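Good day; I would like, with your permission, to put a structural problem before you. A protein sequence and the structure tokens that stand for its backbone fold form the material at issue. I would ask you to consider whether the tokens describe a fold that such a sequence might reasonably adopt. I set the record out below, with my sincere thanks for your time.
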Amino acid sequence: PSHFIQALERVFDLDYHDTPTPISQEQILERVRAHPPDAMLFPGKTKIDKELLAAAGDKLKMLATFSVGYDHIDIPE
């Protein structure tokens, strides 16, 4: 909801996808490489793997998904 986005924008620099069209894995990787995040929050179908984590780099402190299950997350990575 927009009121949460507005509250977060007062404290953090946000990069978020807010259109109904799904974002591709390559688009996510491009955005993460361009601006390595401190934290990431993803919907449940986003593949979280070695490539995404490497793109985020050492700056990444938190990763979260809003999903049931974790079959889209490469746990060993």
Summary: The beta strands are 39-43, 62-66. Helices lie at 2-9, 25-34, 50-56. The mean pLDDT is 90.
